[in-house]
Amino acid sequence: MTDRTILISGAGIAGTALAYWLRRHGFAPTVVERAPAVREGGYKVDIRGAALEVVRRMGVLDEIRRERTDVRRGSVVDAAGRRVASMDGDSFGGRSDEDAEILRGDLNRILYDLTKDDAEYLFDTSIAAVAETAEGVSVTFDTGETRAFDLVVGADGLHSVTRRLAFGPEEDYIRDLGYYVSIFSVPNHLGLDREELTYVSPGRTTLMYSTAKDSGAKAMFLFAGAPQEYDRRDRARQQSILAGAYAEDAWEVPRLLSEMSAAPDFYFDTLSQVHMDRWSKGRVVLLGDAGYCASPASGQGTSLALVGAYVLAGELAAAGGGHEAGFDRYEKEMRHYTDENQKLGPQNVKHMVLGSRWLIRFQMTMLRVMPHMPGKDRVIAKILEPIHKAANAIALKDY
């Protein structure tokens, strides 16, 4: 087999899933991660459609279901905290009976445990430079060490260092959807029991939810906003932007914001997508958010990562490890699937963040009457049809 040694930048969902499939096909993967360990916690994510089949083939679907969030109820609340509309957790989250919802950190741990004994992991390390040679790729790490690999895979997220080094500035590929997202852990001061609460004001949405096996809760903020200059590592500036956007909001918003300075897992970024004509250049290829981020609004980032890892490893194996044919076939197999799922982001966010009080009143009315409508299941299925169509927009090969 040619092109056997493969460096994966990023030990998130995409990177750890790829490490598994590469080992299954006889490759030798090394995973480099700038964090000191696999990241814990994080927001809840969904596994749908083709991605369910991928984790089934990995043998971890039952474990994922045991670690499910088990959110049983979703409600929209008014400024006084009264539940003005409620439905079951799956309908509220846009899931069918087969879909699996799990905390991102729990899924990452499952995949890491599956691969830690078979793949080399380098934590507290990141790529500093990449240079192609006659034999492969020479990679210099931020530790100063230089190593040679046959191929390099960038699975390092929206702000991929690998993409910047190999393809150029991220501004050439990232498309800002005009919204921001923030999420962090908070005390469960409302005593929520596997429930999600949503408070909506013009241009801003706030969520608080609790999940099974977690005594705390998560707060999530989605808001419309013009681009602002800030350093992605300047947490104080990010928190200032968030607090300013929600300065006039009611419900539990002030208390939730007061907890962000103490949160160990504060996250803040634009809602953005990555669009590229090609995901590979020479011996470097991109996977997951690094190459085709659909944004959290799509609800499909995790599924794209899982399916992409399966297809990339499979096509490299089918090509005998030859990267040119393998990369070409990976793009051919994945392009329609990624396109369909990326369409969901801009569509979904318009229903998640409402621009006027009139739209809010209209949506609240619809949510209140929906549980009592004749044929409500057909109505809900019609609403959820686009995401489930996109989730199944690929036929998985047997590699």
TrEMBL record:
Keywords: Monooxygenase, Oxidoreductase. SUPFAM superfamilies: FAD/NAD(P)-binding domain (SSF51905). The keyword Oxidoreductase applies. Gene3D superfamilies: D-Amino Acid Oxidase, subunit A, domain 2 (3.30.9.10), FAD/NAD(P)-binding domain (3.50.50.60). Residues 5-336 form the FAD-binding domain. Signal peptide: none annotated. This is FAD-dependent monooxygenase. GO terms for molecular function: monooxygenase activity. InterPro entries: FAD-bd (IPR002938), FAD/NAD-bd_sf (IPR036188), FAD_aromatic-hydroxylase (IPR051704).
